[in-house]
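Hi team,

Filling in the usual template for the complex we talked about on Friday. All components are listed, including any nucleic acid strands or ligand strings, so the model treats them as one assembly.

SUBMITTER: L.P.
PURPOSE: interface mapping
COMPONENTS: three
RESIDUES: 1693
SEQUENCES:
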Amino acid sequence: MSVTELGMPRMGFFTDTSVCIGCKACEVACKEWNAIPSGPLELTGESFDNTSQLGANSWRHVAFVEQRVPADRVAADGTAQWAGDGVADPGADGGFDGVRWLMASDVCKHCTRAACLDVCPTGALFRTEFDTVVVQQDVCNGCGYCVSACPYGVLGQREGDGRVFKCTMCYDRIGQGQEPACAKACPTKSIQFGELDQLRERAAERVAELHDRGVADARLYGADPDDGVGGNGAFFLLLDEPETYGLPPDPVVTTRDLPQMWRDAALAAGTLLAGLAAAFLGRRSS
Amino acid sequence: MTDVRTGRRRAGDRGMPQFTSYYGRPILKAPTWKALDIAGYLFTGGLAGASSILAAGARLTGRPRMARASTLGALGAIGVSVVALVHDLGRPDRFYNMLRVAKPTSPMNVGSWLLAGYGPLAGAAAASEVTGIAPRLGRAAGGGAAVLGAAVASYTSVLIADTAVPAWHEARRAMPLVFAGSAAASAAGLALICAPRAEAGPACRAAIGGAALELAAGTVMERSGGVVAETYHTGRAGALLTAAKALTAAGALGALASTRNRLLGALSGAALLAGSALTRFGIFEAGRASTQDPKYTVLPQRERLAAAAASAQRTDHPGPVPA
Amino acid sequence: MRQFLGWPVLRQVAGPDRRGLGSAAMSRTTRELMPRTVTADSVVKSICPYCAVGCAQNVYVKDGAVVQIEGDPDSPISRGRLCPKGSASLQLTTGDSREHRVLYRRPHGTEWEPLDLDTAMDMVAERVIATRRATWEWESDGKRTRRTMGIASLGGATLDNEENYLIKKLFTALGVVQVENQARVCHSSTVAALGTSFGRGGSTTYLQDLQRADCIIIEGSNFAEAHPVGFQWVMEAKAKGATIIHVDPRFSRTSALADIYVPIRAGTDIAWLGGLINYVLSTEKYFREYVVNYTNAATIVGEKFADTEDLDGLFSGLDRGTRSYDPHSWQYEGGEVAAASGERDQQYQDLAGDGGSGSDAGGSESHGSGGATVRGSWRRDESLTDPRCVFQILKRHYSRYTPEMVERICGVPQAVFHRVAAAITENSGRERTTAFAYAVGWTQHTVGVQYIRAASILQLLLGNIGRPGGGIMALRGHASIQGSSDIPTLFNLLPGYIPMPHAHQHEDLDSFVAADAAERGYWANMRSYLISLLKAYWGGAATAENDFCFDYLPRLTGSHSTYETVQAQLDGTCKGYFLLGENPAVGSANTSLQRRGMANLDWLVVRDFSLIESATWWKDGPEIATGEMRTEDIGTEVFFFPAAAHTEKSGSFTNTNRLLQWHFAAVEPQGDARSDMWFMLHLGRRIREKLAGSTDPADRPVLDLTWNYPTEGALDEPVAESVLAEINGWDSSGEYLSSYEQLKDDGSTSCGCWIYCGCYADGINQPARRKSHVLQSISSREWGWAWPANRRELYNRASADPQGKPWSQAKALVWWDEAQGRWVGDDVPDFPPTRRPDYRPDDEASGVEALSGIDPFIMQADGKGWLYAPSGLTDGPMPTHYEPQDSPMRNLLYSQQRNPVRQVFSRPHNRYHPDPTEPGTAVYPYVITTYRLTEHFTAGAMSRWQPYLSELQPEFFCEVSPQLAAARGLQHRNWATIVTARGAVEARVMVTSRMTPLTVDGRTIHQIGLPYHWGPNGLSTGDSMNELSAVVLDPNVHIQEVKALTADIRPGRRPRGADLPPFLEEYRRRAGITERTGMEGATT
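RESULT (copied from the run log):
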């Protein structure tokens, strides 16, 4: 099994969106535990999502995607339902007669190779004994580098505070053998917390089960150790393309290219030095 | 309507594939950095680094007034850049945490150590220059500043390329040369303004060389990254970079002719400085723009996956399943 | 120096973490991090105060303050999980949205004034005494009533059982009969429907049992959104392969998780369920052995009965004059009339030959624990072929509810109907069970009771009652709304569903009992239950000589439900009003009527967390905005008392499983905040002190009342356990009783609520039991205490066949163990424990002895589940489809359009919409249905003030289909105005394909979804949906119809200020609405 530098089992989240009921208990439980400021009171009109994105003040975010699917899908697919004949206006209905309402609770991915952690200049970000990635609020100086480094757009800078915040996987709680607040609250256990290896096994079984039931769209996201970030500590079972939920289809940790970037930079520095030196050669104009 | 609101949309009208997004919302966060601070930092860092090199060269080749100008210019520029860097922090009072750890994986941390080394040297060189005290040490410091200056002028390209910002990361190969050229041009520009005609020869050559490199590498940079490249040609970034190229080119040509005309030299220098600055602001703006439309995140990644899948099929070996 | 050594760079060099990505980068703060769940001084066991799922909470206390609230993993119901509301209860209880000071508004005052708690209590006590004196009524039309109609109270479902007990006890002693709570407007239909069908008015099953279902139909409920944590058991069933079906007018978060979603036109569920009943009967898919033995299918009905088939939508016995049914003709053959609850008075009077009607007294609810009464001996034809047997009558009654008719009425295509019909029949029988789950989507109709009756009939025919994974799950929406029905703060009930007596000349205890008690079953012991209650109320003063103070009970003279109370306020007869944790200015039908009623009061007492709409209408209500009222003109004196939260008081909630769960006080309330138990106790003390020495016989019940409860703490909060002990009861030697079977009718036992008898057995607080579910079976009988007798699955005798053997091993629950000579299994047998399956009573047997070994419904007079209700309901023995009061469709089944005996109130501001046959009907062409969102709670008092909840659903919106949006030019996210004859509201437009136009009888019907949580106060504000609804009620229980009405919708915001009334008037004019519109009873 994958163990951390300190020999602890790696802990993670498996978010099975196929059983999410979009209740947002995860969002509230997270805010209560971590005393996160509440957000603005504005109706986005984006289905039932008024949180919109992960950020400094939203460490869990439940996405709501309303889709219309063809009739044949309804019978085959346990995730879509017949939704009336809509004969009133076939035009507006575009020949669709099935409805699918996807809900998914997004969170920091706690990457195996975490760009935010790599680029943090102060060591405010660090990798815990559980192989999770945490921002130390007593250290962060708000340089914002991690914000631009994250390929998922997870981290955000808190207005009026200046520091950067994100999910800690409740580092304080799991250190005492307690579940993270979101996973504990989740009414349908769409959010599962545990040892990453076991979660990955469970997830693989779940996908197979869903495929057997005809849910052809079911797929895992972030579970592959060979992907661009070395796999996620928090991975997902999705029912559609990642980008449908606002997730990047093939994220890569930017620091993967860092050695080469350093080489290129060194070359450039050399060029600069040599070039400018050369400018002093040659005939003295007078 | 549902479809509209679930963000199913065309990615531009140039025959690009359809892709879904989450209500058209960006996947990435825009850089928290303020343009004036960070683009300014990139510019002044380059100016300072390259000026230290010119200063050393001038000193070695007996061009005291050029040396004086570049030495003081370097200190001034690096001073401004450090202020800009600290000013951009969410918690400026904690700037010192930049030296809390030593992380080669963090260009900003590496840069901080670099500045910690370069700054004092540039300062010492300038101090000795002004006071005349300990000229030997001053020259040694200037030499050191020249060497570190080359790094200071180039590392900033890694600073921004080492992010998930599509326009910056995709341009990572060419960007260091753009920065090097731009730094040379700006430093030379400063020298052209301050140095007498008699000492301005190297500055002219540096200006022409730097400008040429900046323009050439810039062209390569602006072509990298497929769909992302459009962020360098459109909108605010496009305008800034067009202006930058014009100024840089004009400055270079002016420098050619400036050996005969002091005023023209000064104007060329100003143009080169402005061109260099606008280049950094343009690049900064292109990066910001590339985070604000999900297509710049999704499409390149989709293409990559498609390619991977294709090659996997060719080798008849199942590659990683598209997430 | 130490700082320097702490320099991470040195740790990088020295330690294993060279790259500074891990341990080397840790700060001291990080290394010393400790969760407050660990550093807390104490962990207090509690229960979530929001919905009735009853999730267990752990309350963490540090330095005398609550620092964290989260789920208790030991709970068998919630397993440690909490929904967003439960998760926000830290903010609810410790947030800054709570008021902590008493506020006072003097008559005609324009602002709140401060007032100290002591003075406020004294003033309220004086108001009560004065108003009581001024409005005291010894008699009404020559009938002894011994009451005041000048005072009313509303609220209790959000409070503890102990608080409800004190409220009912004190007000009853004061002669106040208008005592009501949310149960009236939420689930009163449930009590009457399940009570008459099975004998008890509570959910027949419990949430955890749903995991054993092979099929679950969720209808009339937004299960996943309104009860998220309870929904985990539906998901468990789904994971095991069960088929989940959701039938609802709108595609909700519940539909999203279902296997089959069935859109239906709001207000047509009886047609839909009738179709399924017809399918089951006509295709012979019913569970014959179960039906023959356990239901009244075989019983022969008297020949005087005439069905809707014969009378075109009416049953025999309709009195068009009084708009009421005389149920004599519905009786079994040979079954003599024994008045059943509400109707019992009418029949009593019929017999006594003095007219008058008590039929609107909500008596049907008194079947909450004791079915309607039938007496005599009746014939059964177990071949089910006799044309007058219930089975044949049922068959004829539903024969016209064909799939084609279902499609024409409900808009459900026949293909979908057949999918569902196949699913429920294939998943019922010996080996499999299907469960139904419903909520207020069924109860809140003018035929609400009959909706649930229809499901009861279906489940009985399929043999799903009393069996694991079967049953009917009534989903309650308030923490203790079940408890506030069991220990009722309801006008028509005494604790344990004993009916309140009606005014009759010279009625005494004997005649009351004679009129009510049954001959057979446990209801035969009603005398013991009642006398034990009177002993609990009046202790030593209650003696055999004085009829145990039966005379002290105030009498009813018809319906005094909260809606009649509003009429009484408007008419000026009701002058004082207590609001105890309820917000009628948002949550009740026709909120304008509610506010106008309150504006006509002498005084109003509001107890809540924050300044809810019902507390501030006099300064900022909609009528002030329109200029219809002026603050200066309003004479109502208003007292606002801040209430204590669940973390600040001990007490028990009764959840939707009929399960009593105890929550302990974690901290004392701050400022003037007090528990409602404190309020009632000290109000009672002050009133008794002021009345001390009074010789007025009207004051005797107050002065004789047992009211000496111990108090504790600096605030003199009552000891809640002492009230629980009184509810449980004791014998003459002071020993706590352990079962209602011990109750005596000689005054030697005292019991405050007979169905709760045993909750304090052995002096142990049974509801406080918290043995983890991991150490128990599914029924987890050592967690809390369920009524009756800690049974979790009711009627579980029916889980075994007539011989007492399980129907199948897969569905074994309770069975007869010959060796032990008793019933055994994983639940408390809901049957005389040692009664043999083959026991048959002789004809002389009475009471419990008269229950045969195959009578699983022991509270029923005939021991059977009622497919047909010969008595007990006021609007018919079998459910019949009638259109809602406001409907765009004519009734396709009969020429009788609406429930002929529904309650209508024709008065200004409560006008109804025209019939579909009238031209004006086109003015309000669209169907509205209402619902809850996960993120909010009922009328908003516990969610619209919480930042964490408000931000999740910040604004009132309406859901419309793309087709309707196109037709009416509605823009997504822009404003729309929704208009009825009563009012107009503005809401943000949500255009969504989840709303679907239905094709109904060839017409396209558009439906609009409106969540009802909003009001003008709080953080998240908006118009109240109930500005649109009308007061029109189910005749059995007086519940309002707010799940199906009609309206117009148009783009843009509504007219403001003085422009609003003319706007509404113009609509009414165009529709040709008069005081007679929609008032017709039986169409002749």
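MY TAKE: Chain A touches chain B through 89 residues (CB under 8 Å). Chain A has nine helices and eleven strands.

Thanks, L.
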